[in-house]
Amino acid sequence: MPLDSALTIHSIVYIAEVIYVIQLAVPKLSILVFYVSSIPDNGFRLAVFATMGFIILSTAIISTLSIISCYPIPFFWDRDLKGRCLDINGVAFGIGGLSIVQDVIIIALPIPILRGMRLPWKEKIIVLLMLAAGSS
Hints:
mainly alpha, 2 strands
C-alpha cells in the first residue's frame, strides 16, 4: 500500500474518532429535548437541563482528549515522528463508561413522572420500556 493511502486511512480514522464521540451525544440530547418539550414539570426540566449540561461537558472533554490524544497530532498517523499518545484503551473505556452512565440517567429521569401518573402499572412499564428503547 502506498504511503499516501496509508496516511489518508489513518487521517480518516483520526477524524472518525472525534465524530464518533460527538455522534454519541446527539441522540441523547434530542431525547432530552423531547423530555423538556413534553413534560412541563419544573423540577423535571431542571434535572433534564442538568443532564444536558453533563452530556455536553463530558462530550467536550472527551472530544478534546480525542483531538489531542497524540502529541504532536500527526504522530497519530505517522509513527516515524517523535511523539507520544494517550492510552487508547483507557480513552475507549472512558467513552464507554460515560455513555453507559448517560444512558442510565436518561432512562431514569422520567421514572418519578411515570410513578405519579394515573395509569395501570403495566402501562407505566410499557411507557418506560418505550423510552428506554429510544435512549439506547
